[in-house]
Amino acid sequence: MKVLIVNPIWSFQNYPPLNLVELASYLIQNGFKNTKILDLNFDLKNKFNIDNLVIDSVKKILKQKPDVICITCNAVQFPFVCELSKELKLKTKTAIVVGGVMASLASKLILKLTKADFVIRGEGELTLLELLQVIQNKTSLKNINGLSYIDVTGKIIKNKNRKLLNLNELPFPQFNLISKNLKNNKNIWLTASRGCAYKCKFCSGNEIWEYQRVKNIDFIIKQLKILKTKYGVKNFVFGDDCLTLNKKWVEELCQKIRPLKLKWGCLARIDSIDDEILFYLKKSGCNHIYHGIESGSAQVRHQLDKKMKNNNNKKISDIIQKELKSGFNITCSFMTGIPFETKKNIMQTFNFAKQLQKSGVKIQLWLLTPYHGLKLLDEHKDQLREIDRLQYGLQRDIFDKGQIFLYSKFINKYKKYNPDNFIFLPKDMTLDKFVRLFHDIRQKLGLNHNKKQLTGKEIFILKNIKNEFYFNNTMLIKM
Ligand code: B12
Ligand code: SF4
């Protein structure tokens, strides 16, 4: 049986889909030897024709004559995945399976909009393996935990959730499945653990992963060695939700990374950082740490269920000063548009961000994006406002200019499902006042997102397409 796992077109940027390598390797180890990855985002990046993005992708997929087509889908990939899957359904009877974060959190919606046969919720390995076995042996779908599908009567069936895997059962990743993409790619994101011990209310995906499971350290080191020697990787980022939660494990990990002489970065909760961890991180080549601080108000952080130990700005600032002193590049991410935030809280965020920025921290200020499945959506529905962020010059969390361009033919069809088209309006402000304050703060922080220059590669691609793209009557990109 030929299984094709598809990485959709979603960005001008190119990140090797190591998550799909993990998924594919598991299938291969468990008997589905003829499993391949079709990395459309990589394959088509310099060659596609914007008018035929979907049709060309369908051709590429069908050319491989798969028996099952598996497509990954997060919030960025979502409009393309819907178009692709619908078009595939018109051209083939081959079973289509959609998985990934957005598919997991909005399984009904994804089944409806993609017309796919199956949606796999949560961790994909075992559920997909069981589904393939059922398809092969024509047995019942009823007992496959983690599976959603539409039955013969048209009813959506949502099987029970699946328990998480023991990560030691993951086989060694078969990097050769995406070797072209990996070779000398500078954007390597890999994960040494899955999940996080916390349940912050704004975080998309923590429902899927429930708690943190770490991988075996020698297993990770072996991967890094191969990425370095065979694929020329010199820098990488651990994309783990929070790499530094388990102190003993992270220290051992750092000690073993050190001899590899790689430069790397990670995401970490500020309250998981102490002197010892900093020492080990630094020695092992880590030079960049990304922290989600979220708000300048301790009260708001508390209401977000951030559950920060030592939840006060002075303590946060002290840790960051230590990090800077030790020579790390530090990025701190803040949000506004938090439902229980007041104008005073927003100013606290601004003041704290400014203070950190002055000491050398790179600041990000986002709008809290109401991703599908967030608890906040149920709790604060009344404060949700539909807003064309582009028209208001507001920052978009999901789609950057390049992606809006790529998806220009169909993105508007998915407007009402696109979390970027909504914000939470703080209770003590009108929309107008909130928008003005957001702009004002961003300007004072020097974060003029809308002036983001396209990269040389993007300009090259756009020039070759020789097109002009208009969005809501505003010329977005002009050649
Ligand atoms: C690495 C990463 C990136 C990398 C991508 C690297 C790559 N290789 O593609 C980069 C840096 C590019 C990135 C960017 C963004 N990301 Co990101 N990213 C991650 C991160 C940290 C890890 C992903 C990962 O490897 N996870 C580990 C693997 C094992 O899990 P997985 O990918 O979910 O896959 C498993 C299952 O979902 C399932 N599965 C997945 N696909 C499929 C397909 C099939 C058919 C099946 C059956 C199963 C299946 O099985 C897999 C194995 O168990 C996640 C957070 C997280 N914890 O997942 C966020 C995350 C995916 N990113 C997210 C977002 C929002 C973004 C951004 C849009 C913006 C932003 N504000 O961060 C940008 C997009 C940038 C842009 N505008 O161009 C959100 C997605 C939210 C959503 N609801 O879709 C996440 C969940 C972070 C979060 N908590 O909010 N990201
Ligand atoms: S600590 Fe980070 S990864 Fe964990 S739930 Fe909170 S925001 Fe998400």
Summary, kept brief:
The chain contains 19 helices and 19 strands.
What integer is the average pLDDT?
A: 92
Oligomeric status = single chain
Say which CATH homologous superfamily of the largest domain is assigned.
tm_1862 like domain
- Fraction of helical residues: 25-40%
The number of helices is 19
Distance between the termini: 46 Å
Strand content is 15-25%
Instruction: Write down the Rg.
Output: 22 Å
Q: Give me the count of strands.
A: 19
Q: Tell me, briefly, the overall form.
A: globular
Look at the helices and sheets and give the structural class: alpha/beta
Q: Give the uncertain stretches in residue-range form.
A: 465-479
What is the topology, as strand order, of the major beta sheet? 2-1-3-4-5-6-7
Number of domains: 2
Q: Which small compounds were modeled alongside the protein?
A: cobalamin, iron/sulfur cluster
CATH architecture of the largest domain: Alpha-Beta Horseshoe
CATH class bucket of the largest domain: Alpha Beta
Quick one: biggest sheet? Answer: 7 strands, mixed
